[in-house]
Amino acid sequence: MSDTAPNWDDLRVFLAVARAESLSGAGRVLKMDPATVGRRIARLELDLGAPLFAKSPQGYALTLEGQRLLSHAARAEDEMMRAFEDVAGQEGPLSGQIRLGAPDGSANFLLPQVCAAIVEKHPDLEVQIVALPRIVNLSKREADMAIGVSAPTAGRLHVEKISDYKLHLAAAQSYLDRHPPITRLSDLRHHRVIGYIQDMIFDRELDYLSATGLDTVQLASNSVSVQINWIRQGAGLGIMHDFAIPFTEGLTKILTEEVSLTRSFYLIRHRDNLRTDRLNRFAAALSDGMRREVARLEALT
């Protein structure tokens, strides 16, 4: 092990590689050449006397030593941000980068306008939306906070409910004009159904079609956007978020009394960042903006 202790800049490079799982991805975030990132990681590993990453075809994976360092480095990052906030004061405009993980329904139809409004008020703030068809790993600091459709119970997480939202069966009028009428649930068996790939549903709250009694999906995707595009094109019928319907012309809700689902959005944060005023203020603005936008869009359907 080197006698020189790693500095904060070394840990910043380490965090970027751990989050991006590649030198090139970390280089883009750091605005640094990938070869330089690699040299910095090699130097840090030499200083610590331990391998931090294992390289594989999938990218750079943390070793056990790297996983141990990750929690310490993330706490150091939080402390640095709190130090800057303390010196700069806590009531000024928000600044810096905040990364938000979310399932693609909210990432496509709610968060763009909500986050744009926040950045309009805080021009020095950089917001990144990471749309993933899975649960975001906050412990690995894939994001500063995440939107979820259920409240996790494991891990050092802080969870706040944001808002309920509604979903209904919908189809393009062009599809309904070409197919037999739908007046009851049993009629659905004579129609092409669009939905999730069953073995890729990462949260039981996304198993929407169980409410219809249907067990066969002819057109399936792990992406809400792909499903909505199929519905929009008249390829079949499926369950849609009410807040997404205003973005797509020519859709009609079907069997609204028989199939009406209510789900919830939750804001999920690692407990370590609850002491960071900048993240607290952003979280409050985000939650308020999402509640308002869900209500506005659902009122249009």
UniProtKB/TrEMBL annotation:
UniProt keyword annotation of NADP present: no
GO terms, molecular function: DNA-binding transcription factor activity; sequence-specific DNA binding
Entries under Pfam families matching the protein: HTH_1, LysR_substrate
Entry keyword set: DNA-binding, Transcription, Transcription regulation
BP terms from Gene Ontology: DNA-templated transcription
Entry keyword Transmembrane helix: no
HTH lysR-type domain ranges (all copies): 6-63
Cleaved signal peptide residues: none
Family: Belongs to the LysR transcriptional regulatory family.
Annotated protein name in UniProt: Transcriptional regulator, LysR family protein
